Every structure is written in C-alpha cells, then in structure tokens.
Amino acid sequence: MKRNSPLLIKPKTKSGLYHSITKDSVNWKYLNFEARNFDFNQQFHWDTEENEMVIVLLSGNYKFKSNKGSFETKNGRKNVFKGVAHTLYIPRRTKINLIATSEKLDIAYGWCKSDSDFPLKLVKPEETPTVIFGGDNATRQFNDLIPPGFGCSSIVVREVYTPSGNWSSFPAHKHDERILDKKGNVIEPIQEEIYFYKFQKPEAYAIQQVYTKDHSIDEIIRAQHNDVVMIPKGFHPVVAEHGFHCYYLNFLAGTDQCLKNTTDPDHEWIYDSWKSKDERLPLVTSRMNNEN
C-alpha cells in the first residue's frame, strides 16, 4: 500500500502561493518557509515584524522597495539550472513591496525570529561563494547564499546541485542537539531544515532518507519537482535519480547561525575514501545568468 511520508509536502497549486509552511502549522520552533509564483507586475507586500527573512530568486526578475532600501534584479536566471540565485537578506522591522518585472517570477523565502538588527543586503550571483564538495559519486556543488558568518541572527541558506546518480548530504549528518566543546564552541546546533526540490523534467525525482538511531523517525521519501521535505531531526542523505540532475534549496534556522553537524558514525570512514571529483561540476555558474 502506498503511504505518503508525513515529512513530504507537495505543492498546493501551480500558481500563486504554492508552499506555505509556518512553524505553527507544522509544530516547529524556529523555521518558516513559503514559495510563490507571480505574473508580470504582480506585487508582494510583507512586514517582517520581529523576524529576519531571506528571499531566493528561483527564476525571473523583480523590483524591491522597503523602508530600509531598494533593489532591482536585471539578470535573474531562467530557472535554477540556468545560473545562480540572487539572494536578498531582509532584517526585522522591515516593510517590503516586491514587484515582478518579468513575465513569470518564482521566489522562495524563509523567515525566523531575530533579536538583533542587521543591514539589508542583496547578494548577486557573481558574489555568491561556490564550493565543489565531496568526491567520487558523492560530489556536489554548494552555492552558499547565506553562509555562516553572514551577519544575521540564525538563518542559513544554501542551494545544492547533485549530478545524476550522485549522493548528496552524504555522509549522513544531523543537527538536532546542541553540543559544545570544552571551550564553549558549538560542534552541533539544534536546527530545523527544509529541502525544496526542483528538477529539469517532471518525471525526475530524488530519494531522501530521514532517520534517527532510535528509529523514532525512519522514512524513505521520493521527492519530485517543487516538493518540500522537512527535517525536524535526524540524519538525512539524498541520492539523485540516474539520468536527471537534482537541485534542492536548504533553509535552516535554530540555536546557532552555523553549519556544524554530527556525522553518522557508521559513515565517517567515507571522508577518507574519496579519490576524485565529479568532472560534471559545476553544473551552474554566475556567467550563465548573463547568457539568459
């Protein structure tokens, strides 16, 4: 019998607000997430109140106005496989108005409580750090949109490209208990996380496992285009279907603004096993934005 995982959230619609995942609706403590499509000249109004917010440009272009500053994107990518994101960090107590300036606009945004004031900032594609991480058939590309040390309260955002057939978020890791070393440095935070998937064709998918050592969570999930997988706790590796490259966008929020984690001890040996990098990477570069 087919059973949908409680951690898998399908898009509600193909237009407009197609994901809305608030911490209250899913009984989380920190993280909220939405994704939204616009037609040309449609507007989006928001008041961040006591939250910080990050808007990731998935495709299209927009004008942004607020009481903290204004921006306009000109070289937004056609889709997530045609360039790197523009990333907009918005501090608390900001009233915004976003206007679609392209025929179609697709954005994702996350928000969480903030206890401090930070500058409004637009990070352009050419300013975004890119890392080729892992090795062999576990090589993938990180675009660090809001990395550790960015200058914010607790939100972290990264987009990940996993080539066809490769493993990602691997070796499996977790971030669900706050652990400090003897000097008080964080070696594992508590963070809630979402994986927001996109693929080049509707038949493509990835397989994601979410599990804990005590088996309180033990899910294997088939994630398709525009699906969200929620990570409340536990280890959460991914593998891309052979024949299709996989994109996912991670939002994280919790006790610390970092990407520290604990590897599944059964998998730690894998770090020393890699012999080469996948030559298909990088799958996207900021140069592609200017070719659109």
Can you put this structure into words, describing what you see?
With 292 residues, this protein is an all-beta fold. The protein has one domain: Jelly Rolls (Sandwich). Helix content is 1%, strand content 45%. It contains one helix and 24 strands. The chain has one helix spanning 23-26; strands at residues 8-9, 17-21, 32-39, 43-47, 51-59, 62-66, 71-72, 87-90, 95-100, 104-113, 121-123, 130-133, 140-146, 156-162, 167-168, 173-174, 176-180, 186-199, 206-211, 218-223, 228-231, 238-240, 246-254, 262-263. Strands 1, 12, 13, 14, 17, 18, 21 and 23 form an eight-stranded antiparallel sheet that branches. Strands 2-3-10-5-8-11 form a six-stranded antiparallel sheet. A hairpin with a 5-residue loop joins strand 17 and strand 18. The longest helix is centred in the first third of the chain and has 4 residues, at 23-26. 40% of the residues are buried. The mean pLDDT is 97.
Could you say what the CATH topology is called? Jelly Rolls
Order of helices and strands: EEHEEEEEEEEEEEEEEEEEEEEEE
Tally of alpha and pi helices: 1
The percent range for helix content is: under 10%
Radius of gyration: 18 Å
Low-confidence stretches: none
Shape: globular
The CATH architecture comes to: Sandwich
Tally of separate domains: 1
* Beta-strand content estimate: 35-45%
Report the count of strand segments.
Answer: 24
CATH superfamily: Jelly Rolls
CATH uppermost class: Mainly Beta
* Main β sheet profile: 8 strands, antiparallel
Arithmetic mean of pLDDT: 97
- Cα(first) to Cα(last) distance is 44 Å
Structural class: mainly beta
